[in-house]
Known about the structure:
Strand content of chain B: under 5%
Radius of gyration of chain A: 24 Å
CATH architecture of the largest domain in chain A: 3-Layer(aba) Sandwich
CATH class of the largest domain in chain A: Alpha Beta
Largest interface: A-B, 25 and 20 residues
CATH topology of the largest domain in chain A: Rossmann fold
Low-confidence stretches of chain B: none
Number of domains of chain A: 3
Radius of gyration of chain B: 24 Å
Number of strands of chain B: 2
Oligomer: heterodimer
CATH class of the domain at 72-236 in chain B: Mainly Alpha
Number of strands of chain A: 20
CATH superfamily of the largest domain in chain A: P-loop containing nucleotide triphosphate hydrolases
Low-confidence stretches of chain A: none
CATH architecture of the domain at 72-236 in chain B: Orthogonal Bundle
Structural class of chain A: alpha+beta
Bound molecules: adenosine-5'-triphosphate, magnesium ion
Number of helices of chain A: 8
Strand content of chain A: 25-35%
Strand order of the largest sheet of chain A: 6-7-8-3-9-10
Distance between the termini of chain A: 33 Å
Number of helices of chain B: 14
Order of helices and strands of chain A: EEEHEEEHHHEHEHEEHHEEEEEEEEEE
Amino acid sequence: MSFLELKKVTKIYPNGTKAVQTTSLNIEKGEFMVFVGPSGCGKSTLLRMVAGLEDITTGDIELDKKIINKIDPSERDVAMVFQNYALYPHMNVYNNLAYGLKNRGLAKDVIEKKVNAAAKLLQISDYLERRPALLSGGQRQRVAMGRAIVRSPKIFLFDEPLSNLDAKLRIQMRLEIKKLQRKVGVTSIFVTHDQVEAMTLADRLAVINNGIIEQLGTPIEIYNNPTSVFVAGFIGSPQMNFIEGELKNNKFKTQAFEITGIKSDFDGKVILGVRPEHLVQANNGLIKFNVDLVEKLGSDNLVYGEIKDKKDLLCYRTPGNEKINSGSKLALNIQENKLYIFNKKTGKRII
Amino acid sequence: MKIKPLQIIAHIILLLGVLLMVVPIWISFASSTHDSVTILTEGMKFNLGDQLSRNYNEVLNEKGGWSEEVTAGKMFINSFIMAFGIATLKVVISAMSAYALVYFRFKLAVPIFWLIFITLLVPLEVRIFPSYKVVSDLGLTNSYTGLVLPLVASATATFFFRQFYKTIPDELLESAKLDGASTWRFFIDFLVPLSKTMIAAMFIFMFVYGYSQYLWPLIMTTSEEYWTVVMGMKIIFTESYEGVAIPRTAERFAYIILSMIPPVLVVVFLQKWFIKGLIQTEK
Lengths: 351, 283
Ligand SMILES: Nc1ncnc2c1ncn2[C@@H]1O[C@H](COP(=O)(O)OP(=O)(O)OP(=O)(O)O)[C@@H](O)[C@H]1O
Ligand SMILES: [Mg+2]
């Protein structure tokens, strides 16, 4: 039995928006679960239902063997970190951390010990007397985390907590959140629309689209075996290349090239997917490719261009030491077993 | 630093404004330090006289009224109780009703808000007879409760609190809820401290409003024990003095000066909060 179970949960807002379609999900104790998906797909709604900030339209949510549908957020023993942190502006950092403990009626010295321990863990001990208005973005972020940690809740909920930070700080905090979660061992759900954040943080990943969990699995599973065009396109950076064509008699066919020996009986329009990092140059390669633009990242080059005779855009990734000029013509092959074929109509993976 | 002509003009205008406000008060004060006879014969005074302690002593301690029972001191106390009661209750009730209107999302919140707002159109003076009837039926004439109670609801203050609460981000409430704050605690621990400046401002306005009530206490009280300062201004020291019919102008000026002190004190005292709230931006 799992620690947190969503059982056929749906959410329809009073205005009729169907934000979450029937969703079931089990999260184990200590697990770091990430919800990832495009804007408006219902990630926050799902998270807020766990927190109790939104009513559940149908279905049940069970936390630690108790159905919590009707339990007030204040009694659920969950902690949430908001995108804008929602620190208490009129209290100093110490009281921000202590407030939840005070409401629980803990003794003063116990509160002090816990707050100091959490502050030390997050390296905010020096600011305990300050008001949030006098802190930098990163420090506020830490205070928000501290406020969640200090209560040792059953579950941490994060709603895009890093999106207000600059790129460098975001990466640093990402690492720290992961380390912290390992150290404290609290079950966590993290919502983001940044797939890199999702991949790096998650023990398990739920890719959500239009209120439905499209795929659930470890980041590597999802990267290696996306079950739909949507997931394949969403996970991985730069994005997977998609080339439309037709599949017939085990043969994938476009104007530009053909691939034979595909192990599927499917007959009809399909989309071929291949990741930029799974293309290799070969003298008489299958895909003829005109280079438009090379992005030099140092470690890697991202080569963008068009497929000859097909006008499909393609991205190809090479090590940074390889010299490729824009305007040059390349011939590329797909690494063995690294191509994906999706049904164009349903978007589902065929092979 | 160069002084611009515009700045000079601005300062001149401000100075004129200050003069306009201060000169009448100064004349009243200066006049209150003379003998009534002097004022009667020589007109109002700009310079200080030597009767200050005598006049003020008399004002505070002499028994006046028809039955010679009420002193100015007593009237000050009455006025203070009335103004303080009205201001406090107005602020408390408005803050709480605004809280209900904004945070308890019941269906009728908006119509009820407008209903409250409409009461601005019927101030006490308009509904004074029904109000009197109710209060006298309740047996509250000649009591502090009767003086205060009909005035404690405030659409204006409710409106301001409501607008203020609406600017507080929802996440703050949600975050507080997850931290275990009850409905009541959220009000006390968050809304009250966050609206400190608003509370101070409302308290000042409502205190002055309560202090300057005239018609209601006039109708409400038959016993001189409940007379207020503003009523007294009309009534006190109008009678003749030791049989000789000299209007007691100096004493009345002293009385007026004294009557200004409580509201001024309230403003001065709460101003600190005001300014504190203004310089410490909270967000
Ligand atoms: N209070 C609400 N009332 C009505 N509809 C809502 C409400 N909140 C969200 N929605 C709708 O529900 C859907 C899901 O919203 P949600 O906030 O869960 O998206 P999200 O995945 O968190 O997006 P983002 O990444 O932009 O935060 C959206 O279509 C949104 O417009
Ligand atoms: Mg969201």
